[in-house]
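User: My notes are a mess, but here's the protein and zinc ion's SMILES. Can you give me a structure?
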Amino acid sequence: MRAPVILLLMFATTAVQTIAAGNADLFSNTESLLPPVQNWTGPSESLIVAADDPWITPAERSQLSATPDYDETIAWLRKLVSAAPELEMVSIGQSLQGRDIWMVIASAEGAFSSEAMQATGKPLLLAHSGIHAGEIDGKDAGLMLLRDMTVAARRKDLLEKTNFLFIPILNVDGHERRSAYNRINQRGPVEMGWRTNARNQNLNRDFTKLDTRGVRALIRIFRQWQPDLYLDLHVTDGADYQYDVTFGGNGRGGWSPAIGNWIEDVYRPAVNMALSENGHEPGPLLFAANDMDMQDGFLSWLGNPRYSNGYGDAIHLPTILVENHSLKPYKRRVLGTYVLLAETLELLAGEQDSLREATATDQQRRPPSIPLGFEREQTAIAKVVPFKGIVSERYQGQVSGAEVVRWTGEAVTETLPQIFISQPTVMVEPPAAYVIPQAWSDIVDRIALHGIVMEQIEQPLTSRAEIYRLPAAGIAEPSVWTPNPFEGHIRIDPGEPVKEEIETTFPAGSYLISTDQPLGELLVLMLEPQAPDSFLQWGFFLEIFTRTEYAEAYVLEPLAQKMLDNDVELKTRFEQKLASDDAFAGSPYQRLMWFYEQTPFYDEQYLLYPVARIPQPK
Ligand SMILES: [Zn+2]
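Assistant: No problem, the inputs look usable. Here's the predicted complex:
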């Protein structure tokens, strides 16, 4: 089996080389294809140390145009940690290719365990870079800041007031898939890593299902260290505009409204001011409403819990998603990230109490109904806000045969509609508890990784319960699958499940999981069929979509005839169905199945979602 694979690989390599030969110059210099770069200079440039500084970082050696590989990054950090008593480095897990995922612990007191750190009483910031390894600005900013907080003593004040956990590269295997050709829309560094991990999984879609080692390691850090604030550092794709550092939480109207308000009212103004003072151009997270340019306004988005910011919102962990603008040169982006990190620590020192109060409010909140997802509000109610844009025009592309955007590079201040993706898709009343049968313990294991408290019942439990039956789109095969695999899963659109109320006895060994806990909303978002990041929609319950017992026509035909003879009402319904549904009338299989479904021989567990809800007491 090996030989054909090798042959195929050789063939593919040859093909790529042939294509590259004619256009090698073009591919190695795409600058002329990108929108014009904006000249920039700012006070934050003074953060770069002199060429002869003994603690110059690998990226600074290139004037922030290149980023070091994994080995060089870790070697530099080891040297720093051995010189700085305030630092320690720990491996928080291993990647699929066997690399350690390193975290630097920074504490003025040398409090290198979570218990010791909590005893300091100081606020804790957790930040990581490289969940998408090609978007690596945060790593090089973090190295500079760790130096300045310790051996260089420029920002020692920050560690006197706060504690800091820093994961320079989360997706370490993706980071080592280095190339100059990984992100065509991004201005530097010279070589960068790849978006996904060694199995092509996107870590920033993995926060609920937890397939990847990287995100599992991160969730362990959340649970063990309980940071006050968490930063996930990225770089954008998409439209051009003047902003260089865009950031935000998950809006005011999600699952943690008090935290959402804190981020908008306390965090954003302070960080905006620090960035502006250092010559940067801060902005909110931005997505072009028409996916091309800003003519139709921009979207402000409420992420589902598969994403870091949606997950943080669902578990009441204050979370900021940072998206540096991909068209700004690497140096400007790294310096902006440094300023943002430093100001975040500064702000945490002063606003520790207000943040902890907001977090406690959201942790204690038990809303009577929970939005399962969000969609775009009507454009008509969008508010119009000032926007620092770049002039764009459209032209007819001869290759695509469609209109294409060209960014002119000319700065323009305009007003644009800000359209929120904040309209709940479905609201559900959380049950008092969910019950998961023992046979689905793999789901239970994943739920437990999040830190959700549960109990495995030792005695049978008789209770009123609600169960969902999924609609069958067709008799032979439900047509609810997504056509292509996504993140290694076949996703399911469950349509509108039908809720049935029953009185039942759950056997001993079943898992009883109360929603009355701080992670209750996350639990609802993972178990309600209509939640986009439910285990059902991620394809973890595929088995229930297959019918496994059969009835032969030689039994069903005489059975159906006798049922008709015995039941006038059934006969009327059958005749109505024949008259109103041509496909049904024309299908011998469907006609017999219609009767089979109305017998006790039919599989009553077919399309039955195995997770039950125990309703709230009335
Ligand atoms: Zn990203």
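Residues 133 and 175 are 5 Å apart (CA to CA).
User: Great, I'll file this with my notes.
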